[in-house]
Amino acid sequence: GAELARLGEWYRGRRGMTLLRALIQPDGDRAFTRSEAEVRCLDLLRSAGLPRPHTNVPMGPFELDLFWPDANVAVEVDGWAFHGTRPRFENDRRKDAWLRGRGIEVVRLTWRQITREPVAAAVQVGQALALAEARRRRRAVHAGNGNGPATSGHR
Question: pTM value?
Answer without folding.
Answer: 0.69
